[in-house]
Design brief:
homodimer; alpha/beta; Rossmann fold; Glucose Oxidase, domain 1; eight-stranded mixed sheet
């Protein structure tokens, strides 16, 4: 499909390996990633999958190579560890968008066209809530401008305490999650709050929280988000179509954005040069 | 049962409340906890349950009251957030042991007798691996002496980045977990490593990892523990009977201990005055 966009595709030499749940050992995956960052012919790095394992290699990235030759970089979910590391170490703006595996649905589906726009044009992304999303009712009035940062909530919490701490002061935080019971979502948000990550955040863009329900005497994930985000006292807009849902709109991280809960839009500036 | 030991039991005034999955609102639970810490007649605080919620109130503890009148404190699992906070803020040695709910099996069961020993005697606790435990095969030779610290691995990772960071340099780390798939156990250990918590740790005591298996092309939790702990290059002793298993031996945190993987013993000094 990427070929249909006129792109030349090169697969990492270890990309098809397996090591338990990982796509190869840490060394193999790191070698592929650094090889791509170092190769001047490579103009974009698209992650094939999320899953688990990025944090195991993130401190071995050749950040000098990234600084010397910035490239487009796209992925989400587990890849949040890489987004955060690239931002903290090199200030690279990246794209929070579908994995290459998730784009295999064909070049003309909405998901792919949105990804193509984010990767290959200078058009801003304008996103509105999807009323069918579980978090669509989440809205706290106001308008915020700031750099858009964040990603998978679980991976953000799993990054707390490491040397990668994005400065969210004045920023718009975007979060999504999958397969996390409400208490785990609460735990991640409380951890980030206790760690000071949310101090001074200008607004919160809430994406998809898929398969985050639980049985028993438990709040819904919507109630958890409403309580924890509501206490921040900043604009919040939920139901945005990014994350593990059917629609996975690509959007930039580390670029200026406007979150307007009143007009119900998230506008994100392009990443591409 | 506590009465059968000659103790006078006082229930927190909000102890029977419910607030979703929590035993009352944060304010209610915190009021009970601080009330107990402030009351000179209270000589021990026994947590009724684990579950989830301690980290939500931990920064509101009246640490001055704890410093002014140190008491015995016992619990585990989610209560790890309190153990860590009490240690970091006041250097209170606490007891990693059954919840009061978990003691309701009667005063003469092994679990209760062990808890009584930890709470009410000055006898050291000597613990040996239970060959039936899933982590019993985990053993890396050597002997380590140091203060014993740790608890529930998930809660330790959820504390990373907050102001509560126990100094594990020269200490023996103890860990247990429940209901965490192997990748989540790996994630917690990688987070603690990346956050520097494990730098200089003298040894690791591994307890029960209950319901931590997963289907699919995944390592077992034993393999995850062997890889992550093996790379530390320190003595490791698995299969110890603390955690969410049937046997839950109480033992002190913040007290001197000896981990001897060669003789297969963990010896922990008493907490009680």
């Amino acid at each position: 499909m990427l070929s249909a966009w006129g792109l030349r595709v090169r697969l990492g030499s270890n990309a098809l390996r397996r090591y338990f749940y990982l796509a190869g050992t840490d060394e193999e995956r790191l070698a592929d990633l650094n090889s791509a960052f170092r190769d001047p012919d490579v103009r974009a790095v698209l992650c094939i999958r999320g899953g688990y394992g990025a944090q195991r290699i993130v401190d071995g990235i050749d950040f000098d190579a990234v600084r010397a030759d910035p490239k487009l970089f796209m992925g989400f979910s587990d890849i949040t560890a890489l987004h955060v590391a690239l931002w903290c170490e090199t200030r690279l703006a990246t794209i929070h968008g579908p994995t290459a595996y998730g784009l295999a649905t064909g070049p003309d589906c909405t998901r792919a066209l949105d990804a193509r726009q984010a990767l290959m044009t200078r058009d801003p992304i304008v996103m509105t809530p999807d009323e069918n999303e579980g978090t669509a009712q989440l809205r706290l009035a106001g308008r915020a401008e700031g750099v858009l940062l964040g990603g998978n909530l679980t991976m953000l919490a799993a990054t707390a305490g490491t040397r990668h701490r994005p400065d969210l002061n004045g920023a718009i935080l975007m979060i999504e999650a999958t397969d996390e019971e409400p208490y785990r979502v609460d735990r991640s948000l409380v951890q980030l709050k206790r760690a000071g990550w949310l101090d001074g955040v200008a607004g919160v863009a809430v994406g998809q929280f898929t398969r985050c329900e639980d049985d028993g005497p438990t709040p819904t994930v919507q109630q958890v988000l409403a309580e924890q985000l509501g206490s921040l006292g900043v604009p919040v807009l939920g139901g945005l179509p990014f994350g593990h849902g059917e629609q996975q709109t690509a959007l930039g991280l580390g670029v200026p954005a406007i979150l307007d809960a009143d007009t119900r839009t998230l506008t994100v500036q392009p990443v591409g040069q």
